[in-house]
Structure prediction request, 228 residues.
Amino acid sequence: MRSFTYWTAPLPGGGTSEETALTFDQDRECRLLVLPSLFDEANKLRRQTVEVMHRLDLSGIDSILPDLPGCNDSPQPSGTQTLEDWRFAAETAALHFKATHLLTIRCGALLAPDDLPGWRYAPVNGRSIVRSMIRARTIAAKEAGADESSSELEKIARQQGIELAGWGIGKDLFASLYDAKIPENDMLIDIEQGIVGGPGLWMRAEPDEDPEQADALAAIIAIGLADQ
Prediction:
C-alpha cells in the first residue's frame, strides 16, 4: 500500500531534519531503498519511479523513496547541502528503513551506501548532471535575449554557488558534484537504458512516465531478487 511517512535525517553539526518518504511497505523480507536522481532529473523521473515501486509492490517487494535534506519536499535549503551530507543521509535512511537492497537512479548512484546489494539504473557521474543544467540555462538565457556562457557560469558556480533549473547549488556542492565519478561496487548491478528500452525519460522536457519501461525495470529487479 502506498503511503507517506516521516524519518529523521542527519544534518551537519549534529542537527536533524524531519523528512518525508514515499513507501510501499508491508514489512516484507525484501526492502528496496530507492535513491533518485538529483535536481531537475529527480522531478522528471518522479512519476516513473513511483510506477516502478508500485510494480515491485505487486511482486511482493517493499520499497522506500526518502527525501534527503534539500531535495524534493524537504524543508532544508538545497544550497547548503554537500555531497557528503547526502551520502550520510542515504546511509541513515538505509538503516532507518531496514533496507536489504538498493536501487539508485542516474546520479543517485553517487550517494549509494557501500554495504547494500542492488542495482544502479542508468548511472551517470555528477559532471554530466551539472553540465546538462548549465547548458539548459544558457539556452534559456539566449532565448530571453541574454548572453551566458557555460565557462562563465562554471566559474561563478565555483566561486559563489549558482542557481540551475530552480535549484540553489552551493559552491562546495558544485565542486564535489563536478568531480564525482561512479564508484566501483561489485555489489551493485548496472542497468543500462538500452536494456529497459526506449529513450530515457530524463531527456523529455516535462515529467512523464512510460509503462513499458517501468514494467521492464521492475521485472529486472524482481527476477534478480527471486534468484537470490
In short: The chain is about 40% helix and 20% strand. The first helix runs from residue 39 to 58.
